[in-house]
Design goal:
It is built from twelve helices and twelve strands. It is an alpha/beta fold and 331 residues long.
């Protein structure tokens, strides 16, 4: 195997100079840099990442714990996080969480040295948060946050739930249905609280049998659809706590012969790219900014790592309604 010593001999420079070219090329004069790079290419030299990490006391690796790729929100955020990290010289170790394997994932990450951790898996009362703080590793959560209200980037979930309910109520829908995930997650709890807040303010009756707290799997959502179908008085509109839930419900209703929005209005929350597709045009609520939560969070984390800045990040992005073709005035 070719070593840095071999490269130094081939290029006629010191081994220290080779190390500088590999680790801090911007500090090396251009003629020397070109000479060493030519030697690296000629000998097909591959630097030892582990050795370099020991010298720099960095791994240039960030751990990401993302939600499942069955949700398009996490497809988009994972892509953005990986792209931004790579552009800044970091690798991303991606782990996907189903909220049942969190303890195992945390152990894996703590056992393998990383420069930072970005995660969307945190629960409101997650005991791992204290471990994250004590680890000394810079970290940030996105989309969800811990009850301590620290180190997070989120949308205004309460306002998102409020706007979704307000929109449907303004269209004359009184028989609303709420479908969301477990309330142990700040995202779902905030959006649910906002929904209730709007219903109370606008004096809308919320029937308990039309509130569904699910595990958000396709199977569980289909059972929710069957329950709605069995009701004598069916809802005229559905508030979905995520676009992923809304897209599933659209699929179930359309497959059963319903027209959206003529027979049933459906609104989501997140404003993922799929929702904007010309063939879907889902009415939804999303952040006002053009910069997504994943991109914003990874940029903040990289700044924390590079500047060795441990200041507490608290970012709640404003939201707005994106009215499209899946909601209609009740006649």
């Amino acid at each position: 195997m070719v070593s840095s010593k071999d490269v130094a001999k081939y290029a006629g420079v010191s081994q220290t100079t080779v190390s500088r070219v590999v680790n801090t090329p911007h500090l090396v004069k251009k003629p020397t840099l070109q000479k060493v790079m030519a030697a690296i290419d000629a000998l097909n030299y591959i630097p030892d990442a582990n050795a370099r990490s020991l010298v720099q006391k960095r791994t240039h690796t960030i751990a990401l714990i993302s939600g499942p790729l069955s949700n398009p929100f996490f497809v988009e955020t994972t892509t953005a996080i990986v792209n931004v990290a790579n552009a800044n010289g970091f690798r991303i170790n991606v782990h996907f969480s189903n909220d049942q394997n969190l303890a195992e994932l945390y152990n894996v990450i703590f056992e393998n040295k990383v420069d930072g951790i970005i995660l969307s898996s945190i629960l409101l009362d997650d005991p791992a948060f204290e471990k994250l703080e004590k680890s000394g590793i810079p970290f940030i959560t996105f989309n969800r946050k811990h009850k301590s209200d620290k180190y997070f980037v989120e949308m205004d979930n309460v306002q998102a739930g409020y706007l979704s309910a307000e929109h449907l109520l303004s269209l004359g829908h009184e028989n609303l249905c709420w479908i969301g995930g477990p309330l142990e997650m700040s995202t779902f709890k905030g959006r649910y609280d906002g929904f209730l807040k709007a219903a109370e303010k606008l004096e809308a009756q919320v029937k308990p049998e039309r509130i569904f707290i699910t595990d958000t799997s396709a199977e569980d959502l289909y059972q929710t659809f069957l329950t709605l179908e069995s009701m004598a008085e069916k809802p005229t509109a559905i508030i979905s706590a995520t676009d992923a839930i809304a897209l599933h419900m659209m699929d179930f209703y359309i497959s059963a012969g319903y027209r959206v929005p003529e027979d049933i209005s459906i609104i989501g929350i997140d404003n993922v790219a799929t929702s904007r597709h010309a063939s879907i045009q889902l009415t939804t609520v999303g952040i006002s900014s053009t910069v997504g939560l994943g991109q914003l969070a990874i940029e903040k984390l990289i700044h924390m790592i590079q500047q060795k800045n441990s200041s507490c990040i608290r970012i709640t992005e404003n939201v707005r309604l994106f009215e499209r073709n899946t909601t209609l005035e009740r006649k």
